[in-house]
Amino acid sequence: MLSHQYLFAVPGVWSAQGLEMSVGKIPFLEAVNGSTVILPCTYASCIGIKDLYFNWQYNDNGTMQKVCEAVIPTEDVEPDVKIFRERVEFIGKNHKNNISILIWNITFEDGGLYTCFGRNPKEKNKNHSTVFHLIVVNELRVVDNTLTIIIASAVGGAIAFLMAFMLLKNFTLFVLAKLEEKNKECLVSSSGIDNTENGLSGSKADSKPTPKKK
After folding, report:
1. Which end of the chain has fewer beta carbons closer than 10 Å to its terminal beta carbon, N or C?
2. Is pLDDT of 119 > 50?
3. Residue 55 lies in a domain
4. Can you give the residue range of the structural domain that contains 45?
């Protein structure tokens, strides 16, 4: 009973070991009709794999059609993949757990939802799946960057104005400092002139010699 309570108390430890399939952070792709695309998928398992079964399936209006399938004996063995759909190529060479596929010369009929499924017997047939959405279009949409340009221009203008203001401020302070320094020099000079004219100490006025006693 204690062991069951312990397992229930820490489900995260066990879920971290479960098989996980992933198509990346962006689970969709918009591609032009006639181009070649890659549908990405990788698997991960904390305890490793043994005879991992995987397949790709296409959702055709609610009916799942198998695209390809294979069994990977171990992580260092390249699988023998069976292909069930035209223009499909398996490009995951089991490098970095890669089981991606490539579709040549896509058509509008190729657009839709693709499921990447995996089952790991080493984890008591733990399985997981993830979906990738392929969107086929005549041409890629042109993104209107007008708002982005306006915002960037406004931000750039504000930064330029701030820099110009700071330069003007520093220049003004520099000029004021020079003027203050010049004023101090003028005050010192004028003070010396006043003392000279008043015959104070340091003046150059002629002094009469003291008469000698006979």
Report:
1. C
2. yes
3. yes
4. 20-137
Q: Please report, as a single letter, which amino acid is at residue 63.
A: T
Distance CA 118, CA 113 (A): 17
User: Looking at 3-12, 64-73, 82-91, 203-212, which range is the least confident one?
Assistant: 3-12
For position 92, which CATH number holds? 2.60.40.10
Q: Is 167 helix (H, G, I), strand (E, B) or coil?
A: helix
Residue 11 lies in a domain: no
Count of domains observed in the chain? 2
Task: Of 58, 82, 78, 56, give the one whose Cα is nearest residue 70.
Answer: 82
Count the neighbouring beta carbons within 10 Å of the beta carbon of residue 130.
18
- Write the DSSP string, 66-126: EEEEEEESSTTS----EE-STTEEE---SGGGB--EEESS--GGG-EEEEEEEEEGGGTSE
Contacts of 75 (CB under 8 A, 6+ apart): 48, 49, 94, 97
Residues 130 and 152 in one domain: no
Judge if 90 and 168 occupy the same domain: no
The single-letter DSSP state of residue 143 is P
Q: Is residue 77 part of a domain?
A: yes
| 198/190 Cα distance (integer angstroms) | 12
